[in-house]
């Protein structure tokens, strides 16, 4: 059974014992309809998330609940629960999306393990005005239930990483999530390990420095990815060695 074997209490114990203090858990909008979500979705995700919060508390860890799949897909990618590649999320889906956030905030606001709720993962190709409207409504939904949890707003993948900074200054305990992929462009797939590391060290670090010195909200690098087709096992060991030294 997938729910009972993929991630277990032993994983939380292992993570805690090895220095990890926070987990980011992706969920789909249909979790608010559990245990009988509309087809083709299956029930069981809510109980699994409940278990994760129990284990996190037991082992002294924090949880970021991340709305990874919004109604109608916010990016047209399979991980946002679209099977046909269409992205249809927009103004008409804001109420349903906010309702999901409200459900999650109400359910977990009293848990000592809740550290943040992420309103959406990787919006791409959505109208910026609609996204800001949703982020404000989602923020207010979280604040109905908790004043201490951070609210994470994912920067649109197709926009400049500073596009939300001015907007987010109006809110309290907001974090901007930026994702960096050394993927999807030929310049990355043709780089060796050292070139990938140097790109992060000089290009990504410079951008992050600019973001974090902008007198705005906190910045969170939620994803950092390398191409795998040109990095050997030895290269991966070198990356880990550099990371740990």
UniProtKB/TrEMBL annotation:
Molecular-function GO terms, alphabetical: actin filament binding; hydrolase activity, hydrolyzing O-glycosyl compounds
Keywords for this protein: Glycosidase, Hydrolase
Taxonomic superkingdom: Eukaryota
One GO CC term, this protein: cytoplasm
GO process terms (BP): actin filament bundle assembly; cell migration; establishment or maintenance of cell polarity; polysaccharide catabolic process
Domain Glycoside hydrolase family: 3-223
Record InterPro entries: Fascin (IPR010431), GH (IPR017853), Glyco_hydro_5 (IPR001547), Glyco_hydro_5_CS (IPR018087)
Family membership noted in the UniProt record: Belongs to the glycosyl hydrolase 5 (cellulase A) family.
Protein name stated in the entry: Glucan 1,3-beta-glucosidase
């Amino acid at each position: 059974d997938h729910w009972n074997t993929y991630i277990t209490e032993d994983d939380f114990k292992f993570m805690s014992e090895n220095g990890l203090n926070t987990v980011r858990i992706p969920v789909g909008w249909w979790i608010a309809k559990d245990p009988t979500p509309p087809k083709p979705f299956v029930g069981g995700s809510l109980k699994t998330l409940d278990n994760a919060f129990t284990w996190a508390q037991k082992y002294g860890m924090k949880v970021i609940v991340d709305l990874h799949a919004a109604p109608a897909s916010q990016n047209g990618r399979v991980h946002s629960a679209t099977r046909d590649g269409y992205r249809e999320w927009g103004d008409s889906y804001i109420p349903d999306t906010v309702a999901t956030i409200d459900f999650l905030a109400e359910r977990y606001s009293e848990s000592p393990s809740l550290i943040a709720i992420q309103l959406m993962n990787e919006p791409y190709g959505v109208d910026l005005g609609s996204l800001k409207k949703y982020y404000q409504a989602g923020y207010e939904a979280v604040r109905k239930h908790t004043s201490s949890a951070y609210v994470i707003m994912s920067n649109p993948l197709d926009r400049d990483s500073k596009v939300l900074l001015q907007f987010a200054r109006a809110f309290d305990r907001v974090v901007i999530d930026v994702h960096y992929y050394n993927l999807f462009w030929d310049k990355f797939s043709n780089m060796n390990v050292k070139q990938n590391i140097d790109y992060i060290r000089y290009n990504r670090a410079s951008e992050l420095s600019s973001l974090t010195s902008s007198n705005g909200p906190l910045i969170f690098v939620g994803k950092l990815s390398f191409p795998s087709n040109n990095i050997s096992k030895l290269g991966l060991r070198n990356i880990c060695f550099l990371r740990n030294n």
